[in-house]
Structures are given as structure tokens and as C-alpha cells.
Specification:
Blueprint (H helix, E strand, L loop, with lengths): L9 E3 L7 H13 L6 E3 L6 H12 L8 E2 L1
Parallel strand pairs: 1-2, 2-3
């Protein structure tokens, strides 16, 4: 996602054991480059409050074009 040539539009990561650390990586990627990512599926992971807060910072970026977050 951090690669400016990434054209990924949908990413499904349900039941992938993603934690707050993974949310930090997503937030960084969402803020770093204009993203083509429109749909992100993170249900059934252990994001925790801190992970959700970090992810929300990435979602506020003008580079983020996400439309669906599950």
C-alpha cells in the first residue's frame, strides 16, 4: 500500500490475527501516498482500542479514499 504504484482496491483480511501493530502499519500506508484502496475488511481481528485509534488517524488523511471498512 505504501508503494505509489499500488493499484489495490479491495483488501480482505478477516480472521488474520491483526493487532494494533498492524493497524499502525495500515495507518502509515494510508497517509503516505494517494491510495486506490476503497474497501478494507478487518473484521474478526484483535485491533483493540489503540489500533482503532491509529487506524482512524490514517483514515483522516486526504490521501485516503477508503469507502468501506468492515
Amino acid at each position: 500500500l505504501e508503494n505509489p504504484h499500488c493499484k489495490l482496491e479491495t483488501l480482505g483480511l478477516k480472521f488474520c490475527m491483526i493487532t494494533a501493530e498492524g493497524c499502525a502499519a495500515f495507518a502509515s500506508a494510508l497517509k503516505s501516498n494517494p491510495s486506490h484502496l476503497r474497501d478494507l475488511y478487518l473484521s474478526q481481528n484483535d485491533l483493540g482500542d489503540s489500533g482503532v485509534k491509529m487506524l482512524s488517524v490514517g483514515l483522516e488523511s486526504s490521501h485516503c479514499k477508503l469507502e468501506t471498512l468492515w
